[in-house]
Design a protein that fits this description.
This protein is an alpha+beta fold. It is 33% helix and 22% strand. Strand 29 and strand 30 form a beta hairpin. The longest helix has 111 residues, at 139-249.
């Protein structure tokens, strides 16, 4: 009983006292956080929280709540848990003040009936029929048992409470991470916006300076012509005035003596013509900076680079196909037009901020894919007719119907050599090549693992985990590298956009034997197509999901050397028997691509196909080491022209993401040649 009294006192002291006045609760009120306070104490506390008595903060957890307008503090509900606990403690104190006696027998209750769950005296088990035959134990023992049970339950509740606390902390951490990540993204977007605006300002400034410079040049030429006209006019007037004076007031002898010289002078004046001013001097034709290796893409690409996401324009060929292209006029990729470049800042960093905008903002000429060659010629002639009339700094992209791309516009395109990039001494005999969307150049070679260079040719890093002696490489729409394993039956390697090895995928021939891929390509859906069949393996083409899961495979008559995908996801494969074939992804409907008529030794090896169906073939037949160009007409690929003759074997061939530049690996010269 003493323990019960102590427990009641403890509860009264710790749970039934107001933290504001340190007295037992008087009319306890509950805030929304469930902390109890005396109604009067809470009213006095609210006066210190605000001048208009409209809000109150919890003295314990500091949370702020709105006070009910009509009832004030009394509008908060009565804390019934506190009032009930007060009643229970009061009853316990009353019972513990005297010895608890049995109502039926008048004796002290020293026992506990386990069957009825209540206290009983010694006579209850004998005389009271309600307890007859029941199990009676001492009240002290029953109290200890129930206390132990309660302690066990409180421990279990404590464990659950810790789990809830951990979950709450995790949620708070996630919220903090979300806030921090959002701040980083917003800052990156602001930086991209500021960079883009700065580039636009620099480009506009360059064009204004270019216009003023052209005006000064033209004005000087016009003034020179004007000065000559004034001199000639003065001479004409002087000769004419002298002749008039001689005629009017001269004697016969004067006229006869002066006639030869005057008639000769007047004859020359009569036959002279004024110098005409070229009408072009009255107009300003601006030159636009040409995209170079230091270019940054459009505002979308700037944002995607800073936010580490992939651009939608490069993921979807049809969208990329419908976007207007900037036609290249400069012969090299490193030079700006002189009229504009001489006004640019001298440092390369300053110049680099002006050049990137050309591909997005300086589209004075828009080449739009049309349904026929006639439409293309009409649009080109209209542009040429209007180009001298006006210049637009910004041009809107024109959309085209969602149909198969026509290759008519590329018939007139001329690929011109515009420079080369030498590899580092460690990278000898480069073979495969791929161009990242950020314009990095990825090379495979005999001597080193897969190596990454910048568009300027500066070494950046090697792809970790990749072996050497790699013949080919491909990049998926999600910027993963697909690297065929060397001749060790490995399959192919998948690396992420940072070049870190993600996984290795085994490849098997038609006999389910491990087989090394010699070539790899990626279609528009991201599927991986691998050519297998070296060193006696069953000659096979296997098709995989982007994660490497095998979809299908089919057998070929000869070992596939290199392969590429057409815009409609057909396969163009060069074989070791020196044939070049087009087929679907089941290996059916194969057709041959004929060699160029002037080729003596036809050994097609590396192939590359654009999104518009333009095919490039590197021939390794000596002495015809050339890169040929084919176009698709009527479903057949026909030879169009020869782009270049290589110093040694042409190996890897790749197009930039915007397909404005063509990269060809010159194997023996350890360099990459660039065409635009």
């Amino acid at each position: 009983m003493a323990e019960t009294s102590t427990l009641a006192s403890t509860i009264d002291r710790h749970f039934l006292e107001c933290v504001i006045c340190s007295e037992p609760f008087n009319d306890p009120r509950a805030l929304p956080c469930l902390h109890p306070f005396c109604c009067e104490c809470l009213e006095n506390w609210a006066k210190s929280c605000s001048n208009d008595n409209s809000i109150v903060s919890c003295p314990l957890c500091k949370k702020i709540y709105q006070i009910p307008e009509e009832e004030g503090i009394k509008g908060f509900p009565v804390h019934f848990l506190v009032t009930n606990l007060q009643d229970t403690v009061d009853k316990a104190k009353q019972k513990n003040s005297t010895t608890e006696l049995c109502d039926n027998h008048g004796q002290e209750k020293k026992y506990f009936c386990e069957n009825c769950g209540c206290a009983a005296c010694s006579d209850c088990g004998i005389l009271d029929p309600t307890h007859r035959g029941h199990s009676l134990i001492r009240l002290k023992e029953a109290s200890q048992r129930q206390s132990s049970s309660l302690e066990s339950l409180t421990r279990r509740v404590k464990i659950v409470e810790e789990k809830y606390t951990t979950a709450v902390h995790q949620i708070q951490q996630v919220k903090q991470n979300l806030d921090r990540d959002t701040d980083v993204k917003v800052q990156a977007i602001d930086e991209a916006r500021n960079e883009f605006v700065q580039q636009v300002d620099n480009l506009v400034r360059a064009y204004k300076q270019d216009a003023c410079s052209k005006k000064e040049e033209n004005l000087r030429a016009i003034e020179q012509i004007e000065e000559k006209l004034q001199v000639d006019l003065a001479s004409l007037r002087s000769s004419n005035a002298l002749a008039s004076n001689v005629i009017e007031s001269g004697s016969d002898s004067d006229i006869i003596s002066l006639y030869p010289s005057l008639s000769s002078s007047l004859q020359q004046s009569a036959e002279s013509q004024p110098t005409l001013v070229d009408s072009k001097l009255g107009r300003i034709k601006l030159e636009r900076p040409q995209p170079t290796s230091t270019d940054l893409p459009s505002l979308e690409q700037l944002l995607c680079d800073k936010l580490h996401i992939t651009t939608s324009l490069t993921q979807h060929p049809q969208v990329s196909h419908q976007t207007s292209n900037l036609s290249a006029k400069a012969a090299t990729a490193e030079l700006l037009p002189s009229a504009t470049a001489k006004y640019l800042p001298s440092s390369s960093a300053a110049a680099a901020t002006i050049k990137p905008l050309a591909a997005f903002t300086a589209k004075a000429q828009v080449n739009t894919v049309t349904a026929s060659g006639q439409d293309h010629q009409q649009s080109t002639s209209k542009h040429e007719a209007s180009q001298d009339q006006s210049f637009s700094l910004f041009s809107k992209s024109q959309s085209v119907p969602n149909t198969q791309p026509s290759i008519q516009p590329i018939f007139g395109k001329k690929w011109k050599y515009c420079g080369q990039i030498k590899t580092t001494p460690q990278v000898r005999y480069p073979m495969g090549i791929a161009i990242h969307r950020n314009r990095d150049i990825i090379l495979t070679s005999i001597s080193t693992p897969v190596t990454v260079f910048s568009r300027n040719g500066d070494f950046k890093h090697v792809i970790k985990g990749s072996p050497s002696e790699i013949f080919d490489i491909a990049i998926t729409p999600s910027n993963q590298y697909i690297i065929p394993g060397k001749c060790d039956k490995t399959g192919f390697y998948i690396c992420d956009s940072r070049g870190v090895l993600v996984s290795t995928i085994p490849t098997y021939d038609m006999n389910n034997k491990p087989s090394s891929p010699t070539s790899v390509a990626v279609d528009s859906t991201g599927r991986i197509i691998a050519g297998l069949g070296s060193y006696g393996d069953k000659k096979t083409v296997s098709i995989h999901q982007p994660n490497g899961t095998l979809v299908s495979k089919f057998e070929t008559t000869s070992s596939p050397s290199r392969l590429t995908c057409t815009p409609d996801d057909k396969l163009i494969i060069s074989f070791e028997d020196n044939t070049l074939q087009v087929m679907d992804q089941s290996g059916h409907n194969a057709s041959l691509i004929q060699p160029p008529p002037s080729i003596q030794s036809w050994k097609p090896y590396h192939v590359c196909c654009s999104k518009q169906g333009e095919l490039f073939v590197g021939n390794q037949g000596y002495p015809d080491t050339v890169v040929s160009r084919y176009v698709c007409t009527g479903g057949e690929y026909k030879y169009l022209n020869c782009i270049t003759t290589m110093e040694s074997y042409p190996w890897g061939i790749a197009l930039s993401a915007d397909e404005h530049e063509l990269f060809v690996v010159d194997w023996g010269s350890n360099c990459v040649k660039i065409f635009r």
